[in-house]
Amino acid sequence: MPEAKQTIELAKVRGASKSWPITAKLCMFFTVAQIGSSLMAHYLYEIGPRFKGINEDEIAVFSMARNALIIPMALITLVAMYQVAEMCSAKPRHRALVISRVSMFEFMVKMTYYTLLSRNYGFAFVNQRSYDHRPIYGTRWVGWTFAVPTMVFMNLYPLMDDHRAMDVLIRLFPQMAASSTYCWASGLGCILYDSWMGWFLCILGCVAYLAITADEIAYVRERISLTSQPVTKGISIAIKEIMFILYTAVYLLGNCGLASSYTVQFFYSAADIGHMACMSSLLFLYWNLDDPKVTNKPDHYD
After folding, report:
1. Tens digits of per-residue pLDDT, 195-249?
2. Would you place residue 8 in the very low, low, confident or very high pLDDT band (cuts 50, 70, 90)?
């Protein structure tokens, strides 16, 4: 029986992936393209030198970000306690459980890489695409590889919260995969000696972001009229999209020499914290207003 159930679930996954719209398939195309290009770059091209020295001002920014993330630690503990109580209840609220778990994972990823950055474990390389001798922190880019796709799910899951979390994950997988790999490609493109291959990876990452945006627009158009609280969820999506555009703009400005290294790192740190706080607050507002115990609406079961 367990094997038959697994076979049925696998068939559902395959069927769901075949029903992806063209924009989702385009995201998967760029995911494969970025993986292939990045692996080729690792194999055929030389990576630039490690950054020697310490930028004390930037380390101070990372310490500030880490300290800011320590503040909500008590809230995360309360969320963990809430999950235990909710899972033991007769009718657990699965939407709230999914949202709280994703928020906790996002917080833990950011807490981990800012702690490492503040302790000078940034794994810094010289940014070969920049006009000056500035560092690019591998630890941040590795952290983003997990944090960005998690934020995509965290932001878009509420539009399909009447479905199982696994169904939402299958639909959003192309966006999450493409967003994870563009962090890899864009970061790697900055540290290759070869300028042509380096800029190719940087531009490939930016084009992949455009594909992700196109699939997000298709997803929102499909779901926004079918979900509850469309205004709250729409505001959340708009804020996320504005922040991601600003991330990309600052990344390009830094590489083109129009923004200093300190400015770039300060923006990244402030935006990481502010964006996560804003998204978590909106999700908290959403799950309380849409609580099945208050609205008497049925909740899905995973």
Report:
1. 999 999 999 999 999 999 999 999 999 998 888 788 888 888 999 899 999 998 9
2. very low
Element (H, E) at 124: strand 124-126
Q: Which residues contact 302 (CB under 8 A, 6 or more apart)?
A: 94, 98, 164, 165, 166
Q: Half-sphere exposure of residue 44, counting CA atoms within 13 Å on the CB side?
A: 10
Q: How confident is the model at residue 302, as a pLDDT?
A: 47
Rg of the chain over Cα atoms, rounded to whole angstroms, equals 20
Secondary structure letter of residue 134 according to DSSP = -
Residue with tokens 């158009």: 221
Q: Domain segments of the chain: what residues?
A: 22-293
For 22-293, the fitting CATH number among 1.20.1070.10, 3.40.50.2300, 3.40.50.1380, 3.40.50.300 is 1.20.1070.10
- DSSP structural state of residue 131: S
Nearest of 165, 145, 259 to residue 205 by alpha carbon: 145
Point out the least confidently predicted range of 186-190, 202-206, 290-294: 290-294
Largest CA distance in the chain: 62
Contact between 213 and 175 under an 8 Å Cβ cutoff? The reply is no
The pTM for the full model equals 0.85
* Backbone phi, psi, residue 125, to 5°: -120, 160
> Which amino acid makes up residue 277?
A
Distance CA 38, CA 43 (A): 9
Which residue, 21, 10, 40, is CA-closest to 204? 40
Report the C-alpha gap between 216 and 220 in whole angstroms: 6
CB of 184 closer than 8 Å to CB of 34: yes
